[in-house]
Amino acid sequence: MALIVQKFGGTSVGNIERIQAVAERVLATRAAGHDVVVVVSAMSGETDRLVKLAREIDSQPHPRELDALLSTGEQVTIALLAMALHSKGQMALSLTGSQVPIETDAAHNKARIERIDGTRLRAALAAGQVVIVAGFQGINQHGDITTLGRGGSDTTAVALAAALQADECAIYTDVDGIYTTDPRVEGKARRLDRITYEEMLEMASLGAKVLQTRSVEFAMNYRVPVRVLSSFQDGPGTLVTSEENCMEAPRVSGIAFSRNEAKITVVAVPDRPGIASAILGPVSAANINVDVILQNISEDGKTDFTFTVERSDFERAMNILRGVARELGADDVRGDTGIVKVSAVGVGMRSHAGIAASMFAALAQENINIQMISTSEIKISVVIAEKYLELAVRALHSTFGLEEAAS
Length: 407
Ligand code: ADP
Ligand code: ASP
Ligand code: MG
What we know:
By secondary structure, this protein is of the alpha/beta class. It is built from twelve helices and 20 strands. Aspartic acid binds next to helix 6.
């Protein structure tokens, strides 16, 4: 008998019929003799709806109150799923994050899980219950409700699997696995049988929202085998696992992209030591993440300094930088929210030369101008105009032969 954590995303619990179908899947797993802990998201669209309601009152709602609001979505689905299981004769217990409890740090809206007390969960399982835990939420040391950032139910599931030393963590969603790129953008994308933790971590942090980045960190750190599967059809899905369990790595395993990007240029700043820190210090002090950075060579002792931030932080960053530019004697601050980041990811890059050159050639062929470049051992990212996103993803997908079966 195994212990299995199953997570169902928003579309998978989008209406009563689908919640009934989830209950059937849980029953089938029980019938096979396994203990089951289920994690559910809010019904699809619900979290967006709640965010919108909050913003109708205040464009920057108080983070604590926003968490109190957003956590209600998952509270609805845990109760409904418990009722569905009861009506099918299965004992089931719904638990909110604070009832488990799932303890987090105090960072409202993007809290990190610090500790999970499995005592109540284990007792309920031992008593024959299916335990249903609300995804995306926890409780901080003040007893206040926190949420884990958008897509956080994945992290709840993997963290529970780690804490309970579950045999498997199955993430049921609206695609039948992890693909070489988002199948909604490239119809020729191919489902991967396996992907390494490292590659999935890069893919997620570069924008592939099929798993929340932090869930992959948990999986990697605690060696939790994670399988991404479809709620709607049976199939093998994709196993996220360690490198030694993967066959020889292709040069590039996938293409990721992110629309949540904006570019800021501080124009004609005096080129002297300390300038990067003078510009970026106040930005990071405001808890804004800076990603790709580009500093041009100077002319007449002045240089342009360009970097990207998340689009959601753009207005705040611009306000800070207008002040900084004035102090530094820069000519201007320019912003551009019409950009995206497209990345090629693969552990095989470590041992293959020329990936960057192929990538740049493919984009040149499509007449796509590269505005910024950033690389690491296993990824190459380019910043381009948003209107070229789909074209760039398809061109790179084809250049790296991703539509064909891995050889
Ligand atoms: P859930 O609500 O189940 O958590 P999400 O919408 O968060 O589902 O994640 C699933 C979506 O991730 C898919 O519908 C797909 O559009 C998107 N996606 C992005 N990149 C990939 C990828 N490489 N493979 C599969 N899906 C991807
Ligand atoms: N309901 C939350 C969201 O929409 C968490 C999740 O679905 O994972 O972001
Ligand atoms: Mg998700």
